[in-house]
Amino acid sequence: MKSIFIASTLVLSLSANAFAHGDDNYQAAAQTHQGRATEMGKPGDADKVSRTTEIDLADTMRFTPSTISIKRGETVKFIVKNSGKIKHEMVIGSMQELKEHAALMLKFPEMEHSDPNQVSVDPGQTGELIWQFSKAGTFDFACLQPGHFEAGMRGKIIVK
């Protein structure tokens, strides 16, 4: 009887995993940011941080500050504090990438990601994201937890 229980548990867990990760849309969602954020820069080296910027994430669905100015070439350490009571994140990308990923997060709310252009922060916690901005332009960041992007939790990074 014990071996039947173990076998059935294994089958259920494998089929659940296949369902969750076998879906083509889920695979696309998991790869949405990978490598695409490089148009604005690359993951930064902690030893080469030239600036530290603090960002607060709040349950009002806002970032403070929501606009950040940076010099091209700077390696910035973002200290990201979640002052709210629900999970938030900061994801850097183009508006198109962020919109696509936000839509997929609504469809797959259990999706976890840990890409170098994002940091997820539990309530009351602080995280950090280090990024080197090598191209001038205006770039976006947002919280892609389900519903947060749609509620207006977004910001701009202006690189001169």
Automatic annotation (TrEMBL):
It holds the Pfam family Copper-bind. It is found in: Periplasm. Gene3D superfamilies: Cupredoxins - blue copper proteins. Residues 1-20 form the signal peptide. Keywords: Copper, Metal-binding, Periplasm, Signal. It comes from the Bacteria. Residues 53-160 form the Blue (type 1) copper domain. InterPro entries: BlueCu_1, Cu-binding_ET, Cupredoxin. Its main location: periplasm. This is Plastocyanin/azurin family copper-binding protein. The lineage of its organism: Bacteria, Pseudomonadati, Pseudomonadota, Betaproteobacteria, Burkholderiales.
